[in-house]
Amino acid sequence: MSINQKKKVYENTHTSVFEDQKERLFLQEKNHESVVVLGQVDDEFILIEQFRHGINHTVIQLPGGGVEQGEQLEAAARREFAEETGYQCGKLIYLGKLWPASWRTNEVTHAFFTNDIIDRGAQQLESHEHISIIHMGVSECLQQFKQNTIHDAELCFALLQVILHGYIEKP
């Protein structure tokens, strides 16, 4: 096998699993775009906490999820934010895209920021989701980021972007 060759070892309706020449596995997601939203109300961020099987650990992260076929990124961000937190938002600011694990999957995540929260309803979770909403002070969140106690790549990316673009003040 040459350096770019891969062998398909598994496939279902959502994902293909490939093996490279060193027997490392990686995923090709068929619907590989996702969105996350860093929401802010007053001096608090709206975050979520959920168990992640890949690391066998509970993670503090941003609300978000997959982009449905034909769905616009902003519409997907609004939908996922509302489903996972119950919050409706006004203006969304696009922060950029990232490849959270480019060595393992083709997934691309688009990050958004809002401090324009207009309403709160109930979470609308899917049957497999068990998500807790966390309101964390901006300064506490930034301190945890600085101390490396927040480990989620998408959350770290969004925090860095909102600081660099001046949407929040640097601690």
Topology of this protein?
Blueprint: E1 7-11, E2 15-19, E3 25-29, E4 33-41, E5 44-52, E6 57-61, E7 64-66, H1 73-85, E8 87-89, E9 93-98, E10 108-114, E11 117-120, E12 132-137, H2 138-146, H3 153-164
Parallel strand pairs: 4-10
Antiparallel strand pairs: 1-2, 2-3, 4-5, 4-7, 5-6, 5-12, 8-11, 9-10
Distance between the termini: 50 Å
Secondary-structure-derived class:
alpha+beta
Order of helices and strands: EEEEEEEHEEEEEHH
What is the CATH architecture term of the largest domain? Alpha-Beta Complex
Largest β-sheet summary = 7 strands, mixed
CATH topology of the largest domain: Nucleoside Triphosphate Pyrophosphohydrolase
> What Rg is obtained from the alpha carbons, in whole angstroms?
17 Å
The unreliable regions are: none
Mean pLDDT: 91
Estimate the helix proportion, in percent.
10-25%
- How many E-type strands? 12
CATH class of the largest domain: Alpha Beta
